[in-house]
Model the fold of this input.
Amino acid sequence: MRSITVAQRRARLARRHRLTFEARGTDPADIAESMVALHATDPATVYLSVCARTHGLAPADVERALYDDRSLLRLLAMRRTMFVAPVGLVPVLQAAVADALAVKQRRTYGKYLAQAVEGDIDAWLAEVADETHRELLARGSATGAQLSAAVPRLRTQVDTAPGKPYSKPTNITTWVLLILGCDGLIVRGRPNGSWTSSQYTWAPREAWLPAGAAPIALDAARAELARRWLRTFGPAPVDDLTWWTGWTKTDVRKSLSSLDLTEVDLDGRSGVILSDDTEPAPESEPWAALLPALDPTPMGWQSRDWFLGPHAAALFDTNGNIGPSIWVDGRIVGGWAQRADGEIAWRLLEDVGADAKALIDAEVERTAAWYGDVRAIPRFRTPLERELTS
Done:
């Protein structure tokens, strides 16, 4: 079995993830495609992930790609996580992930709706979703609050934690919008605020995007998504793909069965790589990067020892979300945070030498300039990020 060393995996990461100076991009959609998609649970992550992988762009360029050119689209995808994906990948994500998410969420919400709805809950929920969609088609765009005011049944109250101290009845507006989004009928438009805001307007998909591509069959879509992941994150253990997609092991095995793969040894652990992609990556010039919380690079694998080392306790929260991290030559060496006054505070967790520190200083300065007057607290707080901002 062919062996691929940690050094070779780090060299591939440097170039495939656009983190070396020569690999950086000038188009947000191209950068997103390089990573398959960008994590977007925290709105600032999208912008800061582009920042780390570009030269010559600014936040306004990402906004333009999202809301004017519409070459990028925000949607729920793998592991019911928010992503920003190139528009060309959306049909693949719809078939491979989103369709199943819509079915699952209907089932989940239906259990709670039994508190408030009599009779056929599925039919009732479908009626409310259809009424909401028609209202949005008539308006062209609207906020959740505007739709809730116009569609009375969106204000139906449901308690998801009855009897608990934190019990708080809520209306079902967000649920219905999420289902319509997973069905591919509506999309998230501009936020109500800066690029760190998570309050969006909604638009019918046909009013936001040109005529959609033909639907893709489930098996073909899953195979294509697996192929793209391997191109960006391979070689890797199959379990990492299972974790990243949120599919069952059976689904993953089936998706890989149609691909031409080579089994490789990853320091004693079996992994796979696309058979046409086995050539080693050339070494890069020394590089450093400041990656934001939930960046797609560290969140691309479940097994992270080969780049994370002993730093998980400082950089991850208890739910497995990574905070802002500092990278040098393919490994994590520290963390960073933006303070209330805009200063980028950072701390090394291992010695990297004077030359690497100079590279980090340059990235700190570049990141601070990207923020400008904007302040953003990560949605998920990690130990080191809290320490740096205290």
